[in-house]
Amino acid sequence: MSSEAKVLLITGGGSGIGAETARRAAARGYRIAVNYRSREAEAKAVVAEIIGKGGQAVALPGDMAREADIVRLFDETERALGPVTHLLNSAGINGRRGRVEEYDAANLVHVLTVNVVGLMLCCREAARRMSTRHGGKGGAIVNVSSMAGTLGGRPGSSAYAASKGAVDAFTKGFAREVAAEGIRVNGLRPGMVLTEMTEGRLNDVAFRESIEASIPMGRIGRSGEIADAALWLLSDEASFITGAIVDASGGGYRI
Ligand SMILES: NC(=O)c1ccc[n+]([C@@H]2O[C@H](COP(=O)([O-])OP(=O)(O)OC[C@H]3O[C@@H](n4cnc5c(N)ncnc54)[C@H](OP(=O)(O)O)[C@@H]3O)[C@@H](O)[C@H]2O)c1
Fold first, then answer.
1. How many whole angstroms separate alpha carbon 15 and alpha carbon 57?
2. pTM for the structure as a whole
């Protein structure tokens, strides 16, 4: 990587892990593109906070289920901040939880489209711009997966878990493909972390206690702990690390 501007695009940056990574990355000198789908106000608040502290950031709309939105997102990031040098794929959804007997195809397609296809297309756009094969200057990518991908997820989450298993396999293959072209690609598997995605369920005291009892460290994670791990993988401190999947999970979990 050159010493030119570091431009970090974060999908799903308006909340949770993405938003916390945006704040912390800005403090480390990255210019940040905060992508959102519906959380425009939240994304703009993150951007205002960064700019208020002297950083550079923009909030950009884009639905990970729409290929044209993804291409436009990368183009608009480049116009606003310069070429994307770093990418955090944090956008993701749980989909409808339930037993396999209750599945419906539309919900399955939507989960896989957002969590897998959208993420892959973001990686495609990044590769087209970062790869030395295409005249790019290299870059670093982190794909946010989940510990669910390792064990099949907690009860009712097998479709979500399958999407994250696909993210892990893709991350390893993609990393090898672009390893000699200046791009590092790594995965990050959070365990249970308190964010907008989980707070509804974690507000149930009995559920929260059962989750904490299943984690060797005895507690759920904080979004800042995931953000710091992502920033390390994105940074030059991880310059010889690619195709790795880092667990940030308090030691995993028992189902
Ligand atoms: N929290 C946990 O315990 C946990 C554990 C393991 C893995 N993860 C993973 O961590 C990542 C971040 O989740 P989080 O915990 O930070 O939850 P979150 O606050 O719900 O963040 C998810 C973000 O993804 C965005 N998003 C969803 N669908 C999108 C789409 N079609 N296009 C663009 N953006 C979209 C959401 O924005 P909009 O509402 O605007 O769509 C939201 O800002 C996800 O990939 C999740 O699977 C979380």
1. 15
2. 0.98
- Burial of residue 72, with CB atoms counted within 10 A of its CB: 0-12 exposed, 13-18 middle, 19 or more buried: middle
In DSSP terms, which residues pair with 7 in a beta bridge? 31
Closest residue CA from atom 12 of ligand 1:
90
Substitution candidate for ligand 1 out of 110, 194, 197, 208 with most atoms within 8 A of CB: 197
- What is the DSSP secondary-structure string of 53-108? TT--EEEEE--TT-HHHHHHHHHHHHHHHSS--EEEE----------GGG--HHHH
What does the block give as tokens for 71? 């291409």
Whether 1 is in a domain gets the answer no
Consecutive 10-residue averages of pLDDT for the chain (255 residues): 80 98 98 98 98 98 98 98 98 96 97 98 98 98 98 94 98 98 98 94 94 97 98 98 98 90
Angle ∠(216,25,21) on CA atoms, nearest 5: 40
CA distance 63 to 48: 22
Is residue 206 a part of any domain in this protein? yes
Residue 198 maps to which CATH number? 3.40.50.720
Instruction: Examine residue 87 and state whether it is found in any structural domain, yes or no.
Output: yes
CA distance 128 to 121: 11
Question: Is 118 a member of any domain?
Answer: yes
Which atom of ligand 1 has the smallest separation from the CA of 144? 45
